[in-house]
Design brief:
- Keywords: Iron, Metal-binding.
- Belongs to the pirin family.
- It comes from Cellulomonas rhizosphaerae.
- By secondary structure, this protein is mainly β.
- It has a single domain, classed as Jelly Rolls (Sandwich).
- Helices cover about 5% and strands about 50% of the residues.
- The chain is built from two helices and 26 strands.
- The strands form five sheets. Strands 2, 14, 15, 16, 17, 19, 22 and 24 form an eight-stranded antiparallel sheet that branches. Strands 3-4-5-12-7-10-13 form a seven-stranded antiparallel sheet, with no helix packed on it. Strands 6-11-8-9 form a four-stranded antiparallel sheet, with no helix packed on it.
- The protein is globular, with a radius of gyration of 19 Å.
């Protein structure tokens, strides 16, 4: 998935002061994805006051809606893309030669490293599509390393009375995903049954957040519906979740990320120069040297927008009140 904003704002995801256990709601920003007609996403990461949750630095949710999704080849650097469909099927092709279809309950994980490019198309004519697209910031070493792709079709589950979780990244109470990541992380889809109540175990060393994908739930004493992200802070050994009518939630967690990050368009770097170099490489006639070529598109791809006429500067998290 790509950020198709015509004038993407520079972002810096900076380490932030310890918050402890909190329950803060962050409203999404509605973002129209230019080339995808009638398609909008709800973006809850990054935000000025909450740039990251662990190494999770970008979170878009789109759908459920009937839409013909056509995301042409585009580049990435310094991150991993995590594609998690809730409804519908998405065809992924990349410059590594991958050509796969990802379905609900399956994970696509692409590591950009120094550079990769890919495309994503929905299957069928205007199918019902509902998915989340996340980015994971890569630490030093991996951020400048080789690109990679893996699809995981069989994922572990965690169960408790009234709830079941599919763990697609990291580990939840012994249920560990085989997906390869470079920092301590958690990503899980939690399904709570109608009138279900559950205490979900958490890693106290992580900060966590919850996004409701369907239904409504009460999480850590806060009523949550689809749309906003509930930030839970860190230091929690567990979180209580209940739902009267049933709900599906996305649970994210991770150890606080140690590096400052500049984010612009589809690139994650450490400095303005990192971003400018990546953009220039994608715009050049020799872009395939760094980003490769995605087969099946006859050379058609998404061009990079112009850099802003200022040096990309940090956007830091607002201090705690």
């Amino acid at each position: 998935m790509t950020n198709l904003e015509a004038r993407p704002a520079p972002e810096l995801c900076a380490a932030h002061a310890d918050a402890g256990a909190v329950a803060e709601l962050y409203e999404p920003r509605e973002v129209p994805l230019g080339g995808l007609r009638a398609m909008e996403v709800r973006r809850t990461l990054p935000q000025r006051a909450l740039p990251m949750v662990g190494a999770w630095c970008f979170l878009d949710e789109f759908g459920p809606q009937h839409v013909d999704m056509r995301v042409l080849p585009h580049p990435h650097t310094g991150l991993q893309t995590v594609t998690w469909p809730v409804a519908g099927e998405i065809r992924h092709r990349d410059s590594l030669g991958s050509d796969v279809v990802v379905r609900p309950g399956q994970l696509n994980l692409m590591t950009a490293g120094r550079g990769v490019s890919h495309s994503e198309f929905s299957l069928g004519s205007a199918p019902l599509l509902h998915a989340v697209q996340l980015w994971v910031a890569l630490p030093d070493g991996a951020a400048g390393g080789p690109a990679a792709f893996e699809q995981v079709t069989f994922l572990p589950t965690w169960e408790s009375r009234g709830a079941r979780a599919t763990v697609f990244i990291g580990e939840l109470d012994g249920a560990r995903s085989p997906a390869g990541v470079h920092t301590p992380l958690l990503g899980a889809e939690v399904v709570v049954e109608p009138r279900g109540r559950v205490e979900v175990p958490l890693d106290q060393a992580f900060e966590h957040a919850v996004l409701v994908l369907s239904g409504t739930a009460r999480v850590a004493g806060t009523d949550v519906a689809p749309g906003p992200l509930l930030y839970l802070g860190e230091g929690r050994a567990s979180v209580p979740v209940e739902s009267h009518d049933g709900a599906t939630l996305l649970l994210l967690g991770g150890a606080r990320f140690e590096h400052d990050l500049v984010m612009w368009w589809n690139f994650v770097g450490r400095t303005h120069a990192d971003i400018a170099d990546a953009r220039a490489a994608w715009a050049s006639d020799t872009s395939s040297d760094r980003f490769g070529t995605v087969a099946g598109h006859d050379g058609v791809r998404i061009p990079a927008p112009d850099l802003p006429n200022v040096r990309l500067q940090p956007r830091r998290r607002a201090p705690q009140a």
